[in-house]
């Protein structure tokens, strides 16, 4: 519920890529205003939109860059990118070619899939709940649901679409945290292990975890 509250509050702010108002006309010449598929295609990369429905009814969006601009073999390793809190799949492509991690991976021959967790701008739908009319029910989730439901559902979808039986998972911040909920080994970019020295205003929301360890890392 804490994570859901943070996401909901952030959707009211214009500071994060996941909070773009999709219903208003945007300046198509500004990368920050483009939706992820349009942004990817603007830079000459292929993009696929995938819709995935979780067992608990959340309708999630995934964006895929199947290959890059450079020539590689047809056999491409699958890489799953999971964004951090208050973010979206846009974070992996906003820096542009040669800088955006998704582009870099695609150009090195990887089949890149970028997920958007429930509640973000791209995954704010449900099969029977409305995020406004059923706000308490819709936003009643945390890292647990992301790790136990979201990640396995996305991985199953990727495996079915690519016919690959393995993939690389790369998570940033919350993207690392939710993987730890599910299992025990991954590439972690800035994982959150403790909030003891946190000074961010977000501490008001997650204060109950300040003296505890959120993640147990086993080597």
Automatic annotation (TrEMBL):
Keywords: Signal. InterPro entries: AB_hydrolase_fold, AB_hydrolase_lipase. Residues 1-19 form the signal peptide. GO terms for biological process: lipid metabolic process. This is Partial AB-hydrolase lipase domain-containing protein. Residues 36-94 form the Partial AB-hydrolase lipase domain. PANTHER family: LYSOSOMAL ACID LIPASE-RELATED (PTHR11005). It comes from the Eukaryota.
């Amino acid at each position: 519920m804490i994570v859901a509250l943070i996401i909901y509050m952030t959707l009211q702010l214009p500071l994060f890529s996941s909070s773009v108002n999709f219903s208003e006309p945007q300046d198509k010449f500004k990368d920050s205003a483009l939706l992820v598929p349009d942004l990817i295609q603007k830079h000459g990369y292929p993009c696929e939109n995938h819709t995935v429905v979780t067992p608990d009814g959340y309708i999630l969006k995934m964006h895929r860059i199947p290959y890059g601009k450079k020539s590689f073999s047809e056999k491409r390793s699958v890489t799953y990118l999971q964004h951090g809190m208050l973010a979206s799949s846009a974070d992996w492509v906003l820096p542009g070619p040669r800088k955006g991690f998704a582009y870099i991976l695609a150009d090195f021959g990887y089949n890149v899939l970028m997920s958007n967790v429930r509640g973000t701008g791209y995954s704010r739908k449900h099969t029977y709940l409305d995020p406004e009319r059923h706000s308490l029910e819709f936003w009643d989730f945390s890292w647990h649901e992301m790790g136990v439901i979201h990640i396995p559902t996305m991985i199953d979808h990727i495996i079915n679409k690519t016919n690959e039986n393995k993939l690389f998972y790369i998570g940033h911040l919350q993207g690392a945290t939710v993987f730890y909920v599910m299992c025990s080994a991954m590439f972690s970019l800035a994982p959150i292990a403790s909030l003891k020295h946190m000074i961010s205003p977000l501490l008001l929301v997650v204060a109950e975890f300040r003296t505890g360890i959120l993640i147990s890392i086993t080597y």
